[in-house]
Give the backbone structure.
Amino acid sequence: METRLISFSSMRFLLGSILLGLAFLMLAPCAVALYSGSADLKAFLISEAATTSAAVLLMITGRRKILHFRLRDMFFFTSASWLLVCAFGALPFILSHTVENFTDAVFESVSAITTTGATVLSGLDSMPQDILLWRSMMQWLGGLGIIALGTAVLPFLRIGGMRLFNTESSDLSEKTLPKTRRILHRLLLVYLIISAACAISYWFAGMTVFDAINHAMTTVSTGGFSTHDKSIAYFDSSAIELIGVAFMLFAAMPFMLFLPLMLGRRSGLLSDGQVQSMIAVYFSTATVLTLWLIFTGQLESLDAVRDAIFNVVSIGTTTGFVSSDYTTWGSFAAMVFFFLTFVGGCSGSTSGGIKIFRFKIAAVMFRETLQRLLHPNAVFSRSMQARPLSDEIVASVMAFSLAFATIVGIAATLLAAAGNDVVTSFSAAATTMANVGPGIGEVIGPTGNFATLTAQSKWVLCATMLLGRLEIFTLLLLLTPTFWRD
């Protein structure tokens, strides 16, 4: 029997449920504003009322009975839900006059939800705690959404090879949905436990309770927002940086691998091929940069190790915290960090970027191409982590990589046309597409921000942040006429 398309009334009910959850989260900064006597309380109350009203309206006009999801329904629902959260998440920024205009409010909201960490704000040390908490909570929510996206949506949509690491089903039927819901509930518990452990660790290492909670949310989500302009460098603590490295690595690992630990079973976390490759890439890069810093006389041995490891893991996992201005380490180091921007973590994690598994698939194909040159008539079997690599998976990875590079090039060209210099244009396009945050150069480097960019530039970067976070094709498909044909 043919699967029916989900009706827009049912879709409205689901979207309303998501907005209701966002409204619930707004209660926390409301409470902080009330307790501290902040002038932002009115802005948060209006935002809360607007978000709740929109949620209730959507749910009332929607149908509670959820029909079968088909692929086009999931594409639309995924894109619409992220766009809605970005829009309503921007309300507190504009109503509290934290930012100067609507464009900056949307930019900060999109950057938070996509866990990019690019910001237009400065003076964070003196900013009201309610706004700082809302930024961190949005990144934490975005990290949770990324786990759900990678676990419950992208594998079904066969995007970029994600299907290799999850279910083989292509239909969100009544059989698969309950199982998916159970997995998501367990992943939520894992996310909460890791976040709590990170906050407690930061607190014991010397952070205040408020700083510990905020930085835990932005560490586990690999978002990188901080409550201080200097980011992690503000604390100047090797213990805090070590804790950050540990939890950034945890956040960049597949969260599905933590589930066996919850059930008291042995987990293949450290034996996973993706995890091993990720750690090898990060620490080999950190070793190279450590040697560079030592032999160029820029830092002593221990300081070089500390700064290299923290910043490499932060940029590699697309978190975006900084403990020092790595752009002052020389052109070689700047280029290393530029290329590290694209790497990312593992599939099923909160990190962005191209992701390790796509590089591993590319390596398999590169090796096969070399072998075919020597043995043109031979038959080769492709596999990765004991799973066969089909032509479909290889083709999807190639298509994703081409689309990623093309969009970065187009975005950089548009940014240059808007009056930005070449370094800023390419770096901004790359760092937002990979959802990293800080780039290179004087404008958007580790000590700068995106406030001075033009409005046109910021809207281009909002698009690249969303495209990068939604694995490109999820959003692009909505722009094709074929999607809207029956």
Observations:
- The first strand starts at residue 383 and ends at 384.
- The beta strands are 383-384, 387-388.
- The radius of gyration is 22 Å.
